[in-house]
Design goal:
2 strands, 1 helix, single chain
């Protein structure tokens, strides 16, 4: 059995529009967290 998946974190705004995406494991997530905080405020 094969199993494949991606390592993509997607951040959506309140309208459901894609606001930011980050790909990869073990990468710095500061920009992702900043985008989430920006959208919440």
């Amino acid at each position: 059995m094969d199993f494949s998946h991606s390592n993509i974190i997607s951040v959506f705004d309140q309208e459901g529009e894609l606001a930011y995406q980050q790909e990869g494991l073990g990468v710095n997530n500061e920009e992702t967290v900043s985008k989430i905080i920006e959208l919440v405020n």
